[in-house]
Amino acid sequence: MSTVFLLLAVAGLLAVFNALRPLRATPVLLPAFFSAWLTAELAPQLIVLTVIEITTFVLLGAVSDTRGWVALVLSVLTVVGLLWLVRSSEAAAHVADRALADLPDGPEPDSDVDVTGRLRRFFVPMSFTHPDVDRIVDVPYSDVSGRHRLDVYRHKDKPTGCPTLVQVHGGGWVIGDKREQGRPLMLHLASRGWVCFAPNYRLSPRATWPDHLVDVKRALAWVRQNGAEYGADPGFVVLTGGSAGAHLVAMAALTANDPRYQPGFEDVDTSVAGCVPYYGVYDIAGETGTKASRMRRRHLMDRLVMKTTDDQVYREASPIEAVCEDAPPFLVIHGRNDTLVPVAEARLFVERLRAVSSNPVVYVELPGTQHAFDVFPSIRSSHVVRAVGRFVELLRLRADA
Questions:
Q1: Domain match, 87 and 122 both
Q2: Same domain, 55 and 106
């Protein structure tokens, strides 16, 4: 019994340590990421489970020898580490509010951003529903591909003239689906009178860059032309997305109305009112020189996505190279502990964008935060959703002024 207790205690402490100081070694990169991500975002639930584990083994007499006592000490350290992770999650509120402090006065952050209710969020963290939101699935936005479908999130009262959000999923340009990312934000905004659209797009290796970007712009063009049928104001659209989706929305925002990426719909206005990329890939060309960017190009981009080694193609596909004076307002969000897309990419992108843009560029760098932290409702993602909600509402007020 004490041996089992010790093994579980060691596993728990290693998971917490990996969340605090994530492993970046290539052979274990993906499993280490998943462990760190889930441990950090589910820390409150893991505290309860660890306390139950400790209590159970103590009552079963497992703490009767050296191994049992060592397991008990390690388990207590695990709880302490999990409490530190909770504290880091709570710090997201202060970090985000501080980053937004330089913006003009506007609506205060909404303190109620629970997608499912606090108790349900704790016991069923992967639940994605809201009592005030309807979801319409698989609306076609083009007949070019079977992937050209989108979901619509809107308030059950079906208001009209609503501010509009387009959420683009990630997945390394090769996997992913519109149902997998951004749902806490979309449910939050839809419950408050926004209309949100989540499109799929063609994926590699079948698709070759810039097919992915063309599809995002194609979906944006469809929203411009048809969004009013679902209550949207097609004249006010904000883009958001995570990881590869953040790369795509950043490129879409920075290349508005560029005919290279709008074949057959060159005359449609694809400019947007703002862009909110989460943990995005901004350095396709590998200019930052990070190990992750070099690996991404060698093992993914060259072979499956770009299907070329032409440096000019990579530069044209990099948001850090596409920054421009007329870029829309940006809210860039990135985790300091991100092991899949190093935070250096976000820092360089923000630096370059701020140097040329005539619009606000807000940067939120979240301590102790991994990639994909916003996939399901958590303490951290709720704080970030509140901050994003404030940012986009400020953009709305600015547009109405």
A1: no
A2: no
The DSSP symbol for 300 reads: I
Tally of domains within the chain? 2
- Residue 317's contacts (CB-CB under 8 Å, 6 or more residues apart) are 209, 210, 251, 284, 285, 306
Q: Is residue 97 part of a domain?
A: no
Structure tokens at 246: 């953040």
CATH number at residue 221: 3.40.50.1820
Segment-wise mean pLDDT, segments of 10 residues, the chain, 401 residues: 94 97 89 96 96 96 94 98 97 94 67 54 74 96 97 97 98 96 95 97 98 98 97 97 98 97 97 98 90 87 95 96 97 97 96 97 97 94 94 92 71
Its pTM stands at: 0.94
Among 91, 113, 133, the domain boundary falls at 91
Handedness of CA 301, 305, 307, 310 (dihedral sign): negative
Please list, in sequence order, all residues whose beta carbon lies within 8 angstroms of the beta carbon of residue 37, skipping any fewer than 6 positions away: 370, 371, 372, 373
Active-site residue set: 243, 338, 371
Domain of residue 245 covers 102-400
Q: Is residue 267 exposed (0-12), middle (13-18) or buried (19+ Cβ within 10 Å)?
A: exposed
Last residue of a domain, one of 37, 64, 91: 91
123: Cβ contacts below 8 Å, ≥ 6 apart: none
Q: How far, CA to CA in Å, does 231 sit from each of 22, 132, 153?
A: 44, 15, 10
Distance CA 284, CA 296 (A): 8
d(CA 372, CA 130): 21
